Amino acid sequence: MGRTLAEKIWDAHLVRRGEGDEPDLLYIDLHLLHEVTSPQAFDGLRLAGRTVRRPELTLATEDHNVPTDGIELPIADPVSRTQVEALRRNCTEFGVRLYPMGSAEQGIVHVIGPQLGLTQPGMTVVCGDSHTSTHGAFGSIAFGIGTSEVEHVLATQTLPLRPFRTMAITIDGTADRLPSSVTAKDLILATIARIGTNGAQGHIIEYRGAVVEALSMEARMTVCNMSIEAGARAGVIAPDEVTFAYLRGRPHAPQGAEWDAAIASWRSLRSDDDAQFDTEVRIDADTLAPFVTWGTNPGQGLPLDGRVPDPETLHDEDSRAAARRALAYMDLTPGTPLKRIRVDTVFLGSCTNGRIEDLRAAAAVLNGRRVAPGVRMLVVPGSMRVRAQAEAEGLHEVFLAAGAQWRSAGCSMCLGMNPDQLRPGERSASTSNRNFEGRQGRGGRTHLVSPLVAAATAVRGTLSAPEDLA
Predict the structure, then answer these.
(1) Is the pTM of this model over 0.90?
(2) Cα–Cα separations (whole angstroms), residue 401 to 20, 79, 333, 415
């Protein structure tokens, strides 16, 4: 029987196959660190008298807690400042590369890995962060790990893991591409709404089909980024010419004869024709539309032309109860058209949608328009490289002319760990990946959207698509 792409990568990294109830032991090619989940791991190394096994395969950046405004100043929040200072000391002591706040290479960990060419097909990639699945867009197995596992990888460059199940999600359509105004963010939100937030529990998802093959690398990263929101262990897309073109010439990508050899190897990273998946799902791209979440998890979403659902129409009591709680927290009334929901804040950024392609898309909508009165819009590049490129293209001038705030790189309003937060009761349209209660600040209410919807919403002040603009 043939093997899936994920099974091939897993088997190639086996240090030891577990026997009985033992997990497999897997070699890790790339380990990414940030300030939140690494301090205790380094303390564990120090207490045990251990070193970092492969510091050249380890990279750290400051992203979660850093301010995105006034970055030349000391971090005001004492907890954030302590964590960032600890990361700097630990990286110096253990010889780990670090891109600190203000560095030209600093940014969100899942943005800088790909843009530096560190993330490559066939790799295993881990980080103490749920959205490590982003890197699977390159044909790698990438997943988030806990602090104790961070320590294990630092010490051994391996990780004990139990085998996974496999899921194929095939996306096709008559035009072999997404419809107008439908983005990769809408695609993944619609997918999660269909299969549920536990629909891929215990699986690695492989995204396949002509529509997936037509996506840019940045769009593929968006899709894989949110695999975790469907309960998956990871998401993966087979590498192809789009992948190779993106990697070519990047600082850590192979060069010369090594590049030719790498391409030859990477072309073999595909699921066999007779590979068997544990679960298969098909999605018709022709049925997709701009999407938005109405509740408090990424699976509670609907097409933007829809209405807030009535919990009593849902099929089971668990779903009905969850919807009632979500609507109470979100302060929404069943039957309300989604496009009539007003927002206070629009956030464009995060490891899901903070890349140059996302900024270009939003700027195209905002060009010549103004952010609605009373609406705050934050534009936060995913890295300082993205910021520099956006400024070279004049995108920042579009955002500033529209009345948006232009910030430095960081996780920002994706999560309430830094100064960019919602106040209690405030409502946001956010291009980030989670809309849990309090995710963007205590009492804040979050609607997940694409960059196009975010920009249109900023202009109208209510949840909107570009087609809704006069």
Answers:
(1) yes
(2) 63, 35, 35, 27
